[in-house]
Structure formats: C-alpha cells, structure tokens
Amino acid sequence: MEFKFSSYENCLNFAVEENYKFVNLSNALESNEKSILLRHDIDFSLDHAIKFAEIEKSLDVQATYFVRTHCKYYNALSYSSKEILNKLESLGHIVGLHFEEDYYPEENLYESIHLEKQILDSFLQTPLQHIAPHEPTRTNRLEYDDNRLKEVGIKFQAYDKDLLEKYKYISDSSGKFKDGFLEEHLVKNKETYLYVLTHPVWWFENSPVERY
How far apart are the C-alpha atoms of 200 and 190, rounded to whole Å? Predict the structure, then answer.
C-alpha cells in the first residue's frame, strides 16, 4: 500500500463492503460492532485535508479533523481557513482542537484549552467538543484530566485509556505506519476495532512532491 488517496479510498471501500461501522470519539466505546475510528491531525495545511474529507463523504463515512491554532504553516483564524473548516463540517465531519500546550504556562493549561475552544466556536457550525494533543510523545502528555476538560466544555479526548485498550491504534506519524499499513490491519488482519490516525500532509494523488 502507498500513501495515495486511491489506496485510502480502496481501504474505506473494503470496510464499507465488510459492514464496518464508522465511529467517532463520542460513540466508539459504546460500539459492539466491527468499528473504525478515523482521525486526521492537520499539522501543515488545511488544504491537504479536503481530499480526505471528500473521499469519506462519497462513501458516507465520518472522520474527525483536529486543527492547530498556532501553526507556523497556516492561520486557522483566517477567512480562507474558516471556509475550509466549515466545509469539513458541511461534509458531515467533526472538527476538534489539536492543542499545543507548549504555547502556554503549564498552570494555565485548562484555561488555555477553554480560550482556544471559544475562539474556534466563534465560527464553527457545531461547538467544539473533541481534543487531541499535538506532539504528545514530545510533551509527554497523552491524556488530560476528564473533569477539568468537562469544566471547559470538552467532552472527548483522543487518547482516552479505555479507547486505546479497546481499539487497535495505528498512525502514519513521520510518514510511516510503524505497526503496518492500514490495508494490512483492515484487509489481512480484519481487526474488529481499529483506530486510524493520519496526517494529510503525507498523502498524495500521484507523487509526494505534490505536498511540499
């Protein structure tokens, strides 16, 4: 399998044909059926996310897209970014916060999450309720305090311990599926519960040079 959109689409087609249920962070733990949770961390460009969203929409599949507010490469608060994020929502997807905690003093962690939620909520169609940390292996924080999150309006987090115990988690971080490609886990292993994280920057139509 290559990092091509066509390969991704083929895998989703297979999942649909095999009657997998596509879930999100809000209902993944409740599912007793074969399930896939799709998550996209938008680290470099919002434009890169649209192709994924359109493929998923064509198959009636929902994913969650996590957006950064302090990205060096895109301004999430610009008008063009607002249009893209609203388009993701109109295609039936969820927008979450890809939180960069190193931007703030540690003692203000949850107040800062609340601030960023308020900013994104000011133009999103649906109030933001999902969070995933950016670069968690570097910040050494996979999980947040659930009670503190709820106080600031966040209900679901990407690295919930129960979620990771139930679902096989695979990620294309650094442009490589270290535990095997999506196709391997889906088509060959036929995982019952699969949690897939992608970063749109690594995926392309014909060649990686399209991206950077």
Answer: 24
If one looks up domain 5-201 in CATH, what number appears? 3.20.20.370
- According to DSSP H, which parts of the chain are helical? 5-17, 47-58, 79-90, 109-121, 136-139, 146-151, 161-166, 182-183
pLDDT tens digit sequence for 67-112 = 999 999 999 999 999 999 999 999 999 999 999 998 999 899 999 9
| Tens digits of residue pLDDT in 117-166 | 999 999 999 999 999 999 887 777 888 999 999 999 999 999 999 999 99
The answer to whether 146 and 157 are in contact (CB under 8 A) is: yes
Distance from C-alpha of 56 to C-alpha of 66, rounded to nearest angstrom: 16
Torsion of the alpha carbons at 101, 102, 103 and 109, rounded to the nearest 10: 40
Predicted TM-score (pTM) of the model is: 0.95
> Bridge partners of 94?
64
Q: How far apart are CA 34 and CA 190, in angstroms?
A: 9
